[in-house]
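Risk register update: the risk of archive-format incompatibility is retired. Evidence:
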Amino acid sequence: MVKGRRMRSGLAVTAALCAVAALPGTATAAEGTAGPADLPAYRTAEDARPVEGRESSAEGPSIEPGVYTDDIAPGRRKYYGVRLDAKSNAWISAVALPEPGSAVAYGDGIKVGLKAPDGTTCGESDVVFGDENAARPLADYAWRLIKPDGYCQEEKVYHFYVERESDAGSDRSAWPVEIRFMLEPGLKSVTSTTPPEPQATLTPPDPPAGEARPIEGGTGFNDAAGMGEGNWKDRLRPGETRFYQVPVDWGQQFFVDLEFGTTKARDDKFVSGAFRVDVYNPARGHVDSESGSYRASESAEISLASQRVAFLNRYAPGAELSGMRFAGWYYIAVHAHEDLAESVTGSVPVVLRTSVEGVPKGAPDYDGNAAEAGFGVTDGDREAAARGLSEAEARAGATLRTVGWAGVGTGTALLLGLGLWTVLARRGAARR
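Archived output:
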């Protein structure tokens, strides 16, 4: 009987210690090699909820601020009901997720919009692949802005929609879609809706100093790797898309130079549109894109430069200025065209040289906490970016530190308890 109790107690201690070790943020994923045929899938948000949009705006399911998953077939439009108050700016994005390597045409893509019950368009946009067989995650957003004498200002139910446009010869399977609904607090008072003049020239700073540090880009927005100022290095396989994110505060702008290095090749041929880089803002609105060609025996470069972040940018025409409308994480998606597989052996090395210019300014006079809503930059964000961590990894690290200290106390208590049990058991055995 004593032996049995001792074994059960030992198992309990082991289980408790294993439970501490298995808390979020402590698991290590197994590493392995994968070919172009099994590229990693887009990682959807952990708290995403399934929803099924409808063909009629009158029947669209209600969605609240948060993340949702659905799918959409070619030529379809799906509606969702969105209740808005009369004081918040609303941003609703959709990320279309075609299978890597699937057939897509130059003009294939998605269109998103937000409409009032009377049919008034509050805000809409569209995004396309811009090349044949360049299947990758595509995102853009619809919106409602609060402003004097604006439209769609009333508190009521509005209709958000996602529409897929596909060529007859393109992939006919339904694409998964990730929808994100964000609310940005309005200002306490709107004094102007006049946008600033865009910067005529965007002079890049001197390249960052130091060796390039390794970084592994994420599969999408939810696991994008934080990328602070400095030099970073990664590798991309043909058909792969990797996501990175840079914290950019009010009054700041970012510069990124991407150098695609030479590599082994079966056939050193010139590949047009070999790489494409897309920039998205914190609400997943498409801001800018650039593409470049490549030959395996020669390096290639793509450079990106943003306008300064300012609240009034949102009233400007053109996404390159209007997209820089709030502080937060800006995303950089780098895609390697599948045609590279015809010449490249394995993957292509890429160096990302990142700079953030400008002294952070104070946030606008929000009537609420914009940073908590996802529109701001914290010291923790800057620290995570400097270490090359994603938002999820930064949160997990903070949790682990807390659990670590708690684990010290828990482990000590377990060991003391085990020691006390052993002493008592031995005394009981001696008495018997």
